[in-house]
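Hey,

Quick one before I head out. I ran the complex with magnesium ion overnight. Inputs first:
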Amino acid sequence: MNEPSTQAAAHNTTLKDSKPVITFDGLRKSYGELEVIKGITGEIFSGDVVSIIGPSGCGKSTFLRCMNRLEKVTGGKLDVLGIDVADHLMPTQQLRRLRTQVGMVFQGFNLFPHLSVLDNLTIAPRKVLLKSRQAAEDTAKHYLEKVGLGQKIHAFPDQLSGGQKQRVAIARSLCMNPLILLFDEPTSALDPELVGEVLTVMQQLAQEGMTMVVVTHEIQFAREVANKVIFLSNGYLEETGPAKEVLTSPKSDRLRTFLSRLK
Ligand code: ADP
Ligand code: MG
């Protein structure tokens, strides 16, 4: 991971004079006629762990997917690691840097079923970062150990539990040495007893200072691990602030109602 000690120092303190790693200003996204993100503004700093919460269909995944340009922004500004992500004419080189430096972990893991765990972890570092097989395998082993799956290196995805698959997916993201990790409901597809092992890995990353943006229904995770919450409602940024504050004493009626339904 990059400069863990520096990032760890920044975590939970949100250095106001440091530069944000993600800035969005009047951000909008439409699918044809349907406007899903309706002008949202905010900042995310290095070492922040941000939970994006909100009702189903309010635009959480869309917002997250805009950040690494899996979706094209249709209005306003979005800057990620100094890259103008709203630029429709973004040069390929910039897009490549964005995809390398901003990792994504999906609800459905998205592992290659025909590749071993090791090959799932080494394919992108070899093809995109042009690492040697040996270097890519060394990194893969390091991160597999980190997520507690060193012994599964030669397994195939269908030989793993959902929790193990998701931990492999996290290790795969880490192998690209990202500066930011995006998670879209990483535990929603898991049996309840497997949620904890994934959240533990995420908590560990947060403690090491990784900048993380996490769409999640796990309010306990949001409260304990995130330092910041963004509550989206119907495409608007309804409420944001320090996680404990926002989740303990919500100001807006919509957030209060949303939280009371989760309990
Ligand atoms: P959430 O993640 O909060 O549940 P999404 O961002 O997935 O919400 O979706 C927000 C809205 O955008 C929904 O109405 C959804 O149907 C719509 N939507 C999402 N992706 C697409 C797409 N590729 N094309 C058209 N509509 C979409
Ligand atoms: Mg979603």
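Residues 25 and 41 are 4 Å apart (CA to CA).

Talk tomorrow,
K.
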